[in-house]
Amino acid sequence: MNAVPDPHATLLARLSRVLPEAEITLAAPLIERIGALKREHGAAVVAHNYQVPLVSAAAADFTGDSLAMAQFALASPARTIVVCGVRFMAETVKLLCPDKRVLLAASEAGCSLAESISAEAVRAIRECCPDVPAIAYVNTSAAVKAEVDICCTSANALRVVRSLAVPRVIMLPDQHLAGFVARETGVEVIAWGGQCEVHTRFKAADIRSYRAATGATVLAHPECPEEVQAEADFVGSTGAMAAFLRERRPPRAMLLTECAMADNIALDCPQITFLRPCNLCRHMKATTLERLAHALETLTETIEIAPALAERARAPIARRLAVG
Ligand code: 13P
Ligand code: SF4
Residue 29 class from Cβ within 10 Å (0-12 exposed, 13-18 middle, 19+ buried)? Predict the structure, then answer.
């Protein structure tokens, strides 16, 4: 006779690679409560790769990059989607799934990139270059998305630009992602000066000396400055970095991105030693198990977008999804 697996023991075995046992044991009742609330409301929880393992691995139904989160939410039969991430991610889910209830566990969680540009600024840029297609990074508000032709994420920015088959594009708001796209595609990019407050903290000279001392494989997010990207063996979205490591399994790796990424990958790749010159995103870290349970208990942290705005912002997101 096969023994029924003990859910606490299973959780403990998986999380103990990255967390002390006492922390997991203390969190277990809350994790169980979240599971019961999800069943009660028919809800699915989607988490970004920057969420801590207690949220991503123990409470979420899906963890991935911002493109994959939206794709999961769209395909999910759940009528309620709880986003463990930041506002632009929850807004994107709401735009794609207008008939679902969408909750953001930490409803105040913003993003320095999304806050760096307004709809008025996009209109002004477009007036200066009326024939140039405009691309908004998904890290923007719905109001900004409503002003552009197509959206992209870091996972599909190169595909989106190549799909347009034009010599010049406007790409907003991240100057470093825009530089990455220009270098990789040869397309002239008119950029905005936005930066991610987390990725701009990495310094090329530090990375060079860490690598010389450790021989680690270096992976960077395209939101890192150009000189930092130049030090990396691989540049890609959070999902692309995870896929690279799961396939290659280098003995040592250094992720130039948010700290939680390494913990999430270490759950499945215990043989990789992660060196951690990582930085925390305060917006992502606003999500906790307590905030997730509260959102599911009260169903109050809902995302609403005015229908006229939603209609204009949805089209560029749908075009991005069509590119894949
Ligand atoms: P990804 O699209 O790579 O998940 O990145 C989102 C983000 O906010 C990175 O800082
Ligand atoms: Fe925004 Fe940077 Fe945080 Fe990503 S890491 S959510 S780009 S502030």
Answer: exposed
- Quick one: which ligand is closest to 64's CA? 1
How many other C-beta atoms can be found within 10 angstroms of the C-beta atom of residue 297?
A: 13
Check pocket membership of 178 for ligand 2, CB cut-off 6 A: no
Nearest Cα residue to atom 3 of ligand 2:
281
**CA–CA distance, 102 with 247 (Å, rounded to integer):** 33
Which H/E stretch holds residue 290?
A: helix 289-298
* CATH of the structural domain 7-110+284-298, one choice from 3.30.420.270, 3.40.50.10800, 3.40.50.360, 3.30.70.20: 3.40.50.10800
Residues of the chain short of pLDDT 50, as ranges, are: none
Q: Domain 199-275: give its CATH architecture.
A: 3-Layer(aba) Sandwich (3.40)
Instruction: Please indicate whether residue 174, judged by its CB atom, sits closer than 6 Å to ligand 1.
Output: no
Q: Which two tokens stand for residue 10?
A: 């299973």
Question: Is 283 a pocket residue for ligand 2 (Cβ < 6 Å)?
Answer: yes
SS3 237: coil
pLDDT at 196: 98
Question: 0.85 cut: is pTM over it?
Answer: yes
Query: What phi and psi, each to the nearest 5 degrees, are found at residue 76?
Result: -70, 140
